[in-house]
Amino acid sequence: MSSVATWTMLLWALALTCTLCIFAALLLLYALIQSHNTTVPKWRPRNRPIHLLVVLGSGGHTAEMFSMLRRMELDPIKYTYRTYVVSSGDNFSAKKAVDFETTYLTQHKDPAISERPLPATGSYSIVTVPRARRVHQSYLTAPFSTLSSFWSCLLVLRGLHPDQGPFHPESTHSPHPDIILTNGPATAVCIILAARLLRLWHALSARFALGSRSATVSNNFRLRTIFVESWARVTTLSLSGKILLPFADRFLVQWPDLAGKRAWKGMRQTEYAGTLVD
């Protein structure tokens, strides 16, 4: 008799778990579809400083990213704080970020704003997160390293990563990035999915929480994502691109054959932006 009761309880627990999983999946799908069918709000006033987060990947991804930043003539007066995210062991990308900050941004200052002072030292940070999957790593252990990377990315987006240092309330930038810019390294998957999760949590908290705290959070929460497909992808999207196509706020491609692609009907399409690298 006791065994029957035990099996009954297990079946009820299994049914409840499945119901909760289905509900969570439907909630995530609904939130994703709604976000693609609504206009992205203008969170900041026109002249408000911007916190830019740039995801770097080893080798070609990093070279392309800094080529894009040079081409767009990144203005340190407008983008007052920059966070560069690199994977563990990627000393090349970290060095390139330092070189970009210490040479290019100071030597290529716009003459039109030459009378305006550059932000003080400490206007950028380089944050190291664990690799989602190392080369030749077993697929059995990959989920654990991916979860570790994802958790670290959540800390970065909340301004709580040890490499970022303490956030001062009087600072001109928010601990949450205004814009997340990436061109496809594996770390980008964790970063953009983490941003989506935080935005969903924020939206639910703002809807159901009471008091002034939720309004304060609403004014300081942005995390808008831009995915730029690599210039090397001419006719097909990269694996990172295929995964993130439904999740990025804007998905830019550099070749006409990739324009107009979407994850499924009703989702935002890829945008042809032309060549974005030097």
List the helices and strands and how they pair.
Blueprint: H1 2-36, E1 51-55, H2 60-71, E2 81-87, H3 91-107, E3 124-129, H4 142-157, E4 179-182, H5 186-208, H6 212-219, E5 224-228, H7 239-244, E6 250-253, E7 271-272
Parallel strand pairs: 1-2, 1-4, 2-3, 4-5, 5-6, 6-7
Task: Give an account of the 3D structure.
- The protein has 278 residues and is of the alpha/beta class.
- The model is unreliable at 113-121 and 210-219 (pLDDT under 50).
- The radius of gyration is 21 Å and the shape is globular.
- β1 (51-55), α2 (60-71) and β2 (81-87) form a beta-alpha-beta unit.
- A seven-stranded parallel β-sheet has the order 3-2-1-4-5-6-7, sandwiched between helices.
- It is 42% helix and 12% strand.
- α2 runs parallel beside α3 (91-107) and α4 (142-157) packs across α5.
- It has helices at residues 2-36, 60-71, 91-107, 142-157, 186-208, 212-219, 239-244; strands spanning 51-55, 81-87, 124-129, 179-182, 224-228, 250-253, 271-272.
- The chain folds into two domains: 1-38; 48-272, Glycogen Phosphorylase B (Rossmann fold, 3-Layer(aba) Sandwich), CATH 3.40.50.2000.
- The longest helix has 35 residues, at 2-36.
